[in-house]
């Protein structure tokens, strides 16, 4: 059964002036600008409205089948109780069935059909930013890209890595190629791409390749200073 739509009212203050009486206090009125379905909000707006993040450990978005992965909702205000939700090719609006609904743990049993979008949602329908989890397809995935699962801030140092599936292939020598939005940005012999003093312009979809094998793409989001 499809989840019911939840609407969030966005409220902004309007300041009214009082003609020729500058010393008279201004009045502030609250007006609803519009209503939006929670899941249709942008990730940036969700982070502004709701102080919750979906943490991924290990801190990356791509995984090999049978990896161990832990997801958890972190609310800095502790104002709501959160449940991890997901949409995959096999599950729509599926709730975490574990006793601790704000933690979703895969103990060496992440499977390719667990790939999809995950997010934290409260009983009131508030929803955090979505995280896109990818898992290699059986018998094909040898290389994945390690990149931060959450946005990073301008000025930080970010390292992307090409990782080999230890169950399928032994790491060999050769050149690793990193791509951003389809364009080659770096050749590396060590499999690492380090970006010092990362800028908003470094945001984009990154992939890596080695010996003809191309990883899936993951988005690196860099927040502007003060965002």
Automatic annotation (TrEMBL):
One GO BP: immune response
Ig-like domain ranges (all copies): 138-208
Keyword field: Disulfide bond, Signal
InterPro entries hit by this protein: Ig-like_dom, Ig-like_dom_sf, Ig-like_fold, Ig_Fc_receptor, Ig_sub, Ig_sub2
Entry's Gene Ontology molecular function annotations: transmembrane signaling receptor activity
Annotated SUPFAM superfamilies: Immunoglobulin
Gene Ontology, cellular component aspect: external side of plasma membrane
Pfam entry (one): Ig_3
Domain of life: Eukaryota
This protein's name: Ig-like domain-containing protein
Organism of provenance: Periophthalmus magnuspinnatus
């Amino acid at each position: 059964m499809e989840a019911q739509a939840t609407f969030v009212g966005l409220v902004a203050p309007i300041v009214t002036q009082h003609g020729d009486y500058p010393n008279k206090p201004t009045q502030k009125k609250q007006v609803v600008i519009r209503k939006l379905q929670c899941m249709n909000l942008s990730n940036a707006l969700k982070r502004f409205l709701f102080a919750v993040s979906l943490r991924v450990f290990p801190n990356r978005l791509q995984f090999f089948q049978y990896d161990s992965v832990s997801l958890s909702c972190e609310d800095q205000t502790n104002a709501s109780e959160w449940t991890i939700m997901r949409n995959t090719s096999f599950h729509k609006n599926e709730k975490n069935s574990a006793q601790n609904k704000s933690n979703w743990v895969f103990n060496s049993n992440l499977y390719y059909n667990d790939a999809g979008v995950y997010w934290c949602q409260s009983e009131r329908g508030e929803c955090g930013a979505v995280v896109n989890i990818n898992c290699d397809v059986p018998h094909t995935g040898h290389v994945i890209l390690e990149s931060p699962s959450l946005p990073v801030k301008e000025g930080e140092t970010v390292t992307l890595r090409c990782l080999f599936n230890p169950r399928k292939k032994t790491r060999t020598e050769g050149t690793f190629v990193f791509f951003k939005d389809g364009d080659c940005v770096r050749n590396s012999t060590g499999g690492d791409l380090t970006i010092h003093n990362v800028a908003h312009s470094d945001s984009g979809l990154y992939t890596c390749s080695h010996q003809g094998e191309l990883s899936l793409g993951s988005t690196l989001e860099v927040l502007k200073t003060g965002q």
